Amino acid sequence: MNAAALLTDGTVVTVRELGPDDVSALLELHRGLPIEDRYLRFFSTSPRQLEDFVERMVSPDPPRHVVLGAYREGRLLGAASYVVVRETDFAEVALVVSHAEQAHGVGTLLLEHLASLARSRGVRRFTAEVLTINGRMLRAFTDMGLVTGIVPDGEVIYIELVLEPGEAYLDATSARESRADVASLTHVLRPASIAVVGAGRSPGSVGHAVLHNLVDGNFTGDLYAVNPHAKSVAGVDCCSSVGELPEAPELAVLCVPAKAVPAVAEECGRRGVRALVVISSGVNAEELLKPVRAHGMRLVGPNCLGVSTSSPGVRMNATFADHGPLAGRIGLVTQSGGIAIGVREELRRLGLGLSNLVSTGDKLDISGNDLLMWWEQDRETAIIALYLESFGNPRKFARIARRVAASKPVLAIRAATSEAGQRAAASHTASTATSSVTRDALFRQAGVIAVDSVPELTDTVMALSWQPLPSGRSVAVLSNAGGLGVLAADACVRQGLHMATLGDETRTALAQLVPRTASVHNPVDTTAVVDEATFARCLDVIGADPAVDAVITVTVPTALGDPTGGVHDIAGKPVLAARTGQTERLAGEVPCYAEPARAAAALARLAERADWLARPREFARLGRIDLDAAKAIVAQGQGWLPPDEVVSLLTAFGLPVLGGTLATTAEHAVAAQQAYHVPVALKAVADDLLHKSEGGGVELGVTDAGGVAEAFRAFQERFGDRLRGVFVQPMAKGGRELLVGVVTDEKFGPLVVTGLGGVDTDLLDDRAAALAPLSTADADDLLHGFRTAGHVLAGADEQAVREVLLRVAELAGALPEVVELDINPLVLTDTGCVVVDARVRVAQAEHTDPFLRRLRTP
Question: Which end of the chain has the smaller Cβ count within 10 Å, N or C?
């Protein structure tokens, strides 16, 4: 194990397993402790016990004895160890941290990595002993979020930790990561000094453009330039190298040729630079990361536009964009420099500005996850916009984005939505799990507002910046041009909004304001003769109707006047305007769009955010789960499990399974049928036979021994040596049929899918998908998210189906070995539901910990 990670002060350390070569560093660490700090379980005051520990280090036993150390610039800051004390899954853990490094998060970081490593090797519990006087060490254990038992015994406190990472642990880890990330990104987004390395004299060079933008933007800190062939550039004195700078700049912007970047990065690290922005493209990623990690620097890029901060206390424009950004409250991170410029310029035209712009380029280090954590804490950022072409750690992104979106809107432009990356899959579920389906499920559950273009992004940002969220989806349209009002109403319905039914009082009041030829029903047509004052009074009347949650106005100028001037804000309800021509802001803070469809789409995004904020956040606690039995089943299998093992696996998770008997002979199958005393279904179990109905592997409603024997012989003839047996099941009672499935993505984790079940599964491309784990709201989305849901669920026990979805998601999350699962059909009745048929494919799972705090390493 070798990982880079951040401490709470933003510095980078390397966490790795220690071995014989580290013994002297351990001894030096122990000797450097004050005498009172040596009363730790890790090193006793007894010289003999210390010698025993060193002996174990010289001859390590990795399965039983593991030691991790945290190094920074060659110095050991702390170490954590576990020793397995039973043959099962129980280990004693101990910790020591240099006195000078205590309170910087070294101990907690080491414990996180130790627990993750232990879980991967089958250890499920830690126990530790801490002296009662050692409050700091006690907090290191209790702050983990894993503590399940604390037992005082005189001068010693015994602590026991269960290593399963529950919500409390993940929340605590995420909070620590956020603090550390924000501290490290300060060097990037709020630096006190900057050096532009490769600041060219030619105005057409990238380095010259970056330096000029910093000068022109009145950067508040110290500014340096590095160019061995010039005395000054853009009025800034030049040094010939980073080493000759009068001080170590906090941030260095590298605009040198790609081949020179790793060497310049190494020079920056030795000089004490804390962060790099690498503009250059074509850089060798591995060679660049080596000095970045060796010297504990953070990195933006390479191959990027740069970074900017509009805060008056910084005023940093370290980009090569044409001119500086307008100051504002929108944080923008994008992998594409072109997208960054396009969004920035469109926002500038609308009078909206950026708090920060970060162009991540190849994002070798700093990514969207880092920026989300920064903006969560940044009071100058109110709205967050993302353009991500790939996800380095989508499961961590989902958790961070869900937390951030609860307080600030997060928008993302969808990219790479083609299905070219869809993998061939045998199951119905896996064929659904394209990259775009998985990404959209992540965005929806995390509360990220997904859009498909730069104009749609800026349209939504306008509405979020200037208008409140609606309390519902009922919309009124007010227009002085009837046809355009109808188009607006149609656009609202297409976007999932509802046309409000205006009350009698509202229609009576409107009738007193407009000509007789006007329409006072929604959409309201005032006719072209009303002036802006009358139009404004009509807007007030409609806005006061309790049935109306939002208003869209549509106006056109005529020879009789232009009522657009009468459009204004309504307290507590959003008002969006449409007027043919340019998108703009009207008087007050009413966003105005060039066509009604864009106004309707923006309003739908506001309603989407309001709906997500109102969703319940809780995750259900499920009983009746035998995790040990389930793990034993998947541990011994590879490929598609036999049907009897599938039944056992689903039963272990409390799923309502019909059950059955796997028969290998005709006599065995007959005996099974007679034991059930009801008509049975016979299903062939044969190699490469996944879709049994299509492959001729199902006989239904067999009522007697002769029919069973005949069906068995028919399967033998049809499948020959491929036949492994026949699964005999009692016939299930009829009901609606639902598909429930799981497919696991290497990065995104398990995706749960629902849709029309039975033989109709492939007739309609009608599925809903959500990533595990599922909240109760996520389960409801799955339940009602496909088009035929109303038909399938008619008269069904929805609570029973919801519980099945939650249990399937729990199975998928607990058993990474389950890479595909198809329940088809799940038969629904008014009193419950039952799993009639299911397939499960298992594969050896490599232990991954997507929530472990670590940075990318070479």
Answer: N
